[in-house]
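Researcher: Please generate the 3D structure of the following complex. Treat every line as part of one assembly.
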Amino acid sequence: MRSFLEWLGNTSWSVSLLESFWVWPLIESTHVLAIMLFVGSAMMMDLRLMGLRFGGVRASDFTSRLLPWTRGGFVVMAITGVLLFYSAPLRYYYNIFFRFKVLLLIVAGINIWVFHSRIHRSVGEWDLDDAPPTAARVAGAVSFLSWTLIVIAGRMIAYNWFDCDLQPQPGLVNWAAGCILPGE
Amino acid sequence: MLLPFFEWCEATFLGRVVRESIWMFPVLEAIHLVGLCILGGAILVVDFRLLGTGLKDSTIAELDLQARPWLTTGVTILLVTGVLLFLSEAIKCYYNTSFWVKILTLPVALLFTYVVRERFARAATYTSAYSRWVGSADMLLWFIVAAGGRWIGFS
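Model: Done. Output below.
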C-alpha cells in the first residue's frame, strides 16, 4: 500500500496538482461549497425522517424529488475528494482525521444501504406521518450525526498535530494513524 | 479609517482567547462548516422549489414555513462561530479582499432571504417567473458569501 501511494504521489499529475496556484484551491473550494448541496439536502431529509421538521411533506417526496440533487452533490464531492487525495496520497493515508473520516463514510454508507433496502420499502405506510417509525428515525439520526462528524473530521485533516513525523506521539495515535516508527 | 476598529477587535478578550489556543480556531471553523451545511440545506430546499424543482408536491409557502427554523439555526451557528473566528484574526481580514467581498455581501444576502424572499414565499403557492428570479438571486448571494469565506484562507 505504502509503495503504491508513494508512486501515486510521485506521478507528474499529482505533483503539479499539489503545486498548482489556482487548481488545487478551486478543487478544494468546490469540495467545501458542495457540502451546502450534498450534506445540506441530506440533512433536510434526515430532519424529515426524525420527525423534527417538514411535517406535511411526504417522506417519499424527499427520496424521489430531492434525492437526485443530493446525488448530484455527492458526485461533485466524490470527484473533488478523490482529486484532493490524489494530490497528496501519503499525507492523507497517514492522517488520523482522514482515517476517521473514511470510517465514518463507511458507517454513513451502510446506513444509506439499510435505509433504502429495508426501511424505505414501507414508506407508503408512513409517508405523511409527522413522526415516522423508530427505524426511520434512527436512520435519520445516524445519517445526521455521521455527516456532521464527517464534515468536522474533513476540516481537521488540514491540521498536522498527529502526523507521523511529529514524534513523540501517544501510542494510540501512532496506532490509529498507522505510523511506521524508526526501528520497526 | 476602519483599521482602528479592526485593531480593537483583534485585541478583545475573545479574540485573544481563540488566537492563543491551538485547537479553538480549528474547532470553531469545523462548527462553522456544520452551520454552512444546515444553512445550505434550508436555503436550497426553498430556492429549488422557487425554481420549480425539488419538493414540488408542497407549496412554496409550506416549505418556507417548515425550513425557516433550520435556516435560523444555521445562520445563528454561522454568526456566533464566524464572529469568534473574525475576532481572532481581524487585522488579517482587514487586508483581505475576499473577506470584504464576503462581509459586504452577507447583509445583502440576509436581508434578501429574510425580507424579500420571505415576504414573497410566505404567500406564494406555485412557481412563476418572479419566483424563479427570487430563487436564483438568493442562491447567487449565498454562493458569493460562502465562496468569499472559503477564499479568505487562500489569499
